[in-house]
Structure formats: C-alpha cells, structure tokens
Write a structure and sequence with these properties.
This protein has 15 helices and 16 strands. α9 links the parallel β12 and β13. The protein has a single domain, classed as Queuine tRNA-ribosyltransferase-like (TIM Barrel). The strands form four sheets. Strands 4-5-6-10-11-12-13-14 form an eight-stranded parallel beta barrel, surrounded by five helices. A three-stranded antiparallel β-sheet has the order 1-2-3. The protein has a three-stranded antiparallel β-sheet with strand order 7-8-9. Helices cover 41% and strands 19% of the residues. It has 370 residues and is α/β, with parallel strands linked by helices.
Amino acid sequence: MGQPFRYTLQQTSGAARAGVFATPHGDIHTPAFMVVGTQAAVRAMTPEQLRATGTEVLLANTYHLALRPGEKLVDKLGGLHHFMRWEGPIVTDSGGFQVFSLPSKEISDRGVRFKNEVDGSTIELTPERSVEIQHQLGADIIMAFDECTPYPADVELAGAGVRRTLSWMERCLRAHGRSDHQALFGIVQGSVYEHLRVDCARSLVALDLPGYAIGGVSVGEGHELLCKITALTAPLLPESRPRYLMGVGLPEDLLASIGQGIDLFDCVIPTRYARSASVFTSRGRIRLSNRRYRRDAYPIDTSCDCAACAGGFSRAYLHHLFASNEILSAILASIHNTHFYQRLVRDAREAILARRYDDFQRDFLACYQS
C-alpha cells in the first residue's frame, strides 16, 4: 500500500511548479485554488455545482464548526466528507486566524481564551484542542495551531508569535501522533521580518512535515509585501512537499505567488465578491449592479464556458436579479467567479507544464485590469 499523502513535482517553469498531491480522497492537481466553505458549505453553491467548476478541494473552518454544530456531531454523522456530501479532499484550518481576529481574547503560551460568540461562554483553544477538533471533523489536511501576527507589528511582537508558533507546532505533533489518514501542515509566521521568516521556516522544515503553509500574508500588508515575503519564504520550503499560501487572494496575487513557487491557495474572495455583484472577467472585474449593465445582452464574460455564461444568462438579467435581491443572483455569480478562479489556476498549470509560465502571466495581466 502506498503512502496516503504524496507530492509529485511534475514540471517547473522558472520557480513556478506543477504537481500532484495525493490524498485519501483524491488527487489535488497543483497549482490549485481551494474554495472556502466556512460552515461546511460554500455559500449559494451545491457540491454538484462546485464540481462542475473544476473544484477539487474545499476548506472548512475549525473554529466555526466547533461552535456550531460541534465536532462531536459531525464525527457521529460520518465526518465532514459525509456531512457536507463532498467526496474530494477537504482542508480544515486550525481556528487560529479566526480566534486572533477576535476583539477580546487572552493569549498565553498555553493557548487562547475567548468568548463563545454563540452563547457567551468562555472557551480555551490550545494546540491540543485544535488538533482534537480537527481529528473529529475528519479532513484530509489539518493545520497546526499558530499565532497569526497582525499587521503592522513590531519585531518583538512578531518574534513572540514565531516562538509560540514553533512551540505550538511541537505540541500539535504530539497530539496528532502517527495518524496516516490526516496530513498535519505547519505554518511559517514572522510578519514582514526576514530573519524571523527564515528562522521559522528552517525550524519547521527540520520536523519533516507532509506540507507547509505561509501565514500572515493576508492581514493588510498589500501586494508588494505579500510578494516579498513569499519570494523569501517559498525557496526555504522543501521541493518535495506542497506549499500553501493562506488566505490569498486576488487573481494578480495568485499569479505572482504561483510564479514564486506556491502550490495551494484559499480565499473567500470569489464567492464573497459574487454576492455583492462583483464578478471577474478576462478583462478585469466588473460590478453587475452598475446601471451600465441594465440593458447589456452579453454574458458576464464572452470567453467563459461556466454554467452562467454558457447557459445564456445575460448581464442585464443578473443586474435585474441583484436589483430584485433574488438569491439566484448570488448563485449564478458564485458559479461564474469560482469557475473563473479554477480556470485561472488550470491555465497556469498548463502553462507550467509547457514551460511558458512567464509568457502566460504576462499575457493574462496585459488584458486583465485589476
């Protein structure tokens, strides 16, 4: 029997990589965009609609699912795959980003204490507890509990975050044990400080983990710093393991990061933007609620073959749906945006396999207006 988790690097084009990450619930062809289903559901989309967009892997939220409906119920009902009727790979984050985003929390070396936003009770989330929850949820890839440093942060605060992240990583490993059906990824932190990123990455790599993530790059630092941090950190991670850039992002962010050697991405942008009438096209982003689209008979994007565009739904019709607050507006726009992102990473992958990624990125951005 082969290893349940295995990354195969197929081709490079400069620093860009095309590969396959094998999991117990199927292969992930990289570069890959992981659609976010925070509450074990992608808003306004069914699993069948997601599969039709080319989506291979979903991400669910440990923190929110622990609050409601609770990991024990999910486990009792067969785990996340059965619970949400998704047969492909699933990732769960550790809950760290959500907890550290709360306005009132107490951080210590033991973990984080905060108020339950559902019933007001006090909760303590530790590395051990985070792993325990993720074990019961049953995702294929689970994330280590880390300290997500806010931006901006001085070097002392960022350094304390790295120290805790590494200490908590060791505790996550002990809690995880030798499970062969869930891959535990570590997360590189360090804010914008090069020496902290280097130290954190090297310490994590020494643990020989099945995959590595770069965190703390979608907290307000902007495109230029994101690129700088990614370019510094990605080469420090093993070629033989998948590299995951957390919480990113816009099409231009994805393309830049793929060019720096990143394999996996997740972000709420495609579906969140869709619900507010903002859709992505090969020529840039447009807002369908704008009056200029009230009589527009064209599909969202004439070069798109998603179910919304190929199905004959016009910009004028979607404008009407958004103006009428019809739920079909969110469904069609979400299908389109998710398809756009999956086509983007699929085209990037094909360009890498053909060893022409730089040309692909340049040509795409020449037409795309962010």
